[in-house]
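Hi support team,

I'm opening this ticket because the web form for multi-chain structure prediction keeps timing out on my end. I have pasted the exact lines I submitted so you can reproduce it. The total is 970 residues across two entries, so I didn't expect it to be a heavy job. Is there a limit I'm missing, or should I split the entries? Thanks in advance, R.K.
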Amino acid sequence: MRSNPYLAAVCALATTLTAPALASDIKVSDWDAISTAADGQTVYFNAWGGSEQINDYIAWAGDTLKERYGINLVHVKLDDTANAVSTVVAEAAAGRKSNGSIDLIWINGENFASMKEQQLLFAPDWVTQLPNWQLVDFETKPTVTVDFTIPTDGLEAPWGMAKLVFFHDSVRTQTDDMPDSAEELLQWAKANPGRFTYPQPPNFIGSSFLKQILIETTADPSVLQQPVKDEDFETVTAPLFTYLDQLHPNLWRSARAFPKDYPSMTQLLADGELEITFAFNPAEASNAIANQLLPDSVRSFTFSDGTLSNTHFLTIPFNANSKQAALMTANFLMSPEAQLRKQDVAIWGDPTVLAMDKLAPEEREAFAALDLGVATLKPDQLGPALLEPHASWMGRIEMEWAKRYGVAN
Amino acid sequence: MNLLRFAPALALSILVIPLACGLLGTILPAFGYLPALGGSTPNLDAWRSLAAEPGILRSTFQAFAIGLSATAISVLIVALFTAGWYGTRLFARLQAIVSPLLAVPHAAAAFGFAFMVMPSGFLARLVSPWATGWQAPPDILIVNDTLGIALVIGLVLKEVPFLLLMTLAALPQVPVRRSMRFAQSVGYGRVTGFMLTAWPTIYPQIRLAIYAVIAYATANVDMAIILGPTVPQTLPVRLAVWMSDPDLSTRFMACAGACLQIVITLMALITWFAIEKVFARARNFIALHGFRIQADLWTRWLSATAIILSAVLVFGGLAILAVWSISGLWQFPDALPQSFTARTWQRTWPRLDAPIWTTLIVGLAAIAISVTLAVACLVRENQTGRTGGSRALLMIYLPLLVPQIGFLFGLQLFFLASNTNASWFAVIMVHVMFVLPYVFLSLSAPWRAFDRRYEAIAAAMGKGAWSTLFQVRMPMLLRAILAAAAVGFAVSVGQYLPTLLVGAGRFATITTEAVALGAGGNRRVIGVYTFLQMAMPFIGFALAVMLPALIFRNRRAIRAV
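Hello R.K., no limit was hit. The queue was backed up. Here is the completed structure from your submission:
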């Protein structure tokens, strides 16, 4: 699935360490030249592969790209995007400036921050030169250009919107009884022990849950927008760990085991093992209902003071082998056609990054005609969006979590 | 036929050289030496970072304790069952039921077991809510428990059939009936009589198989991912994570961890020697004091129940998984889905053909090489009249006695150096390492039992050595050869770690995909993959039975061989 870093390391014997090449002879504005060169290229798309629905969607994109542009899209299924980043790091260390093994990465947050900082990305501001960029809502969606407080600078193309949303089955639990904040969630868990949990960090969704709690419990959340400082870390995160110390005895299996990821939690909700689950996609429940994974009595809720929200992106490593085809792929995935299909709850249900008022009338109608699904909240019911903390917080919190809770006592 | 002189040496080098290279490639980096990654001065940094990993002690102890107890329980069940039931109709029946368990890949068996016993699993659904009152599954930690009990049971489910078949292979060389009749005639209980007279001669013959089980159980990855503890995971699982971590600095620590794993397996083996000694003492004590122990009915039923239960859990679980793959909404506590749908198969099928082809190509190539080598070695054995003895047997077992995770990673280095890493060649060769021992072990007994007078007649009629081999012996042993090939194919299909590591994750087989998806918990998709994981070896065994019947449909005598 991922390239072998040893291979890269062995190459390092022959080559001296060099800074990755930043210049590029590809002119992104010359779209005709790009589409000519892309024909016949293979794009190794490194993307998390843990959801069947998403895998199916990527397979559809691959078929369409093949048919229209002669591009072979290969979905390299990752269980953690950090692995793709490390592969590029290894290749850079080995002086592999071209013929990299990765062409496109599904990315955001600390992984993007790390690649940008180490200059491992295809360098020109290519995103704003993609034809479909003109349709993106970069005016009212701030997370489309600022990723976990880091400006994207046109180095990653927005692909979809994400927001932390909770789910419950309205047959078994009443919507009115659902918690409306981290504190209420803790009280609910104490009253209903064993019916709530979160995926084991460093799983992305599990870590995101920790960030939600951190933002709600810490004294001054604005500190989180700055890079983490060693002397602050303990004070800022102390409320989070006090919270978790109280929450864990009341978690599913008393926190002696955790689900691996959010699809596992969806299954546990269907089984009746959990009463409250969550995902980073407002349409997750509707999508699961459409796929007969959940009963149609499942409903969504968020916290009225806001839940974590961000955008996920596509980026191209500096040494990608098929840059032209990767550009074509990113542009296609931002197209109204691909975005419409992505937002369809029967397919994936991932909210679009496009601005409705920039679309052609028939495209706008098609988006409006999409059935959001019975369990999806309307955009105005989703509550405020909480901004992601600076990317540096996550790694520290995950390490601390592993030390405190990753070893059974 | 002269070329065959090199066959045994070739076979042994295919087994032993990669093993030696792999161990070297693991040990050197553990002490900081790996020039390709900038490690040229020996140091203990890797060990320091290993020691600093949270929960590493617990992970290590778990690997040791889980592996050892799974082995002990399996051996105990097999010994008591053979002692209690050998020669009865129940024994023959259960043997027929348990044997196919051997063909079920570990991962598939683990999934089947998990979906039977988890709180929302099939067993709980069967008795809910009418007997238990459970409207929702109880919050009980069964699968992924912190003590690893689920993993121990999972391992036992797979190792009992293996040890039972090894015991059955050893039984004909022991006068079991006579010695048991004698022991019983002087008043010993059935089980005690067997354990005092027959077992001491059987045990040396299955000893290597038991050691292989210890090595497997202490270093298992795929079953541990599915059934084992998660906070923290067992040492082998953590090693597998570190080894596929492209962050290069993690590699040194992973190698140190792999060395630790080898030590752990070694310590488990040493502990086992001690257990052997204790049991020998106990046996002698019982024999010298003449304890007859006739009240052994409970051990007989206990062992029979264990065997029946293991078949029910695995096959029942796999059947339930097959139902999941065609189910619509299926909520607790419904024992059956509300609706059925072909949707999962329709959606998954287009993405299945690549893994199926990879599994087939690697498996078929590995058994072609393994069967050729095994036959060549056996022919050479006929020529020289020497079997190579116990030392050669140990060599053949060697790849099964060293924890896979202890040398596969180092082996990668050597494939890299020869620029064959992540190539078909590398993946097939590493499969041969594990397939060849099984093929050789299952082919050698019928081969050696072949009546050589047939060959003498052929030679007398003027046939050369080659034509005697291809026209007389091989056709007559076709059934045995195909059976050995089917065993080999089943072994190849089940390989998880070798495929993942040496294939650098680029060779997706049914098993690697199943384990990768399995942790994600989509039961419908897991159902599809485990169904295929099971179906492929079974088709192999079915062909091994049907082909000879078809080819020799008008030769009744050969069909009976």
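A quick check on our side: DSSP finds 26 helices and no strands in chain B. Let us know if the file doesn't open in your viewer.
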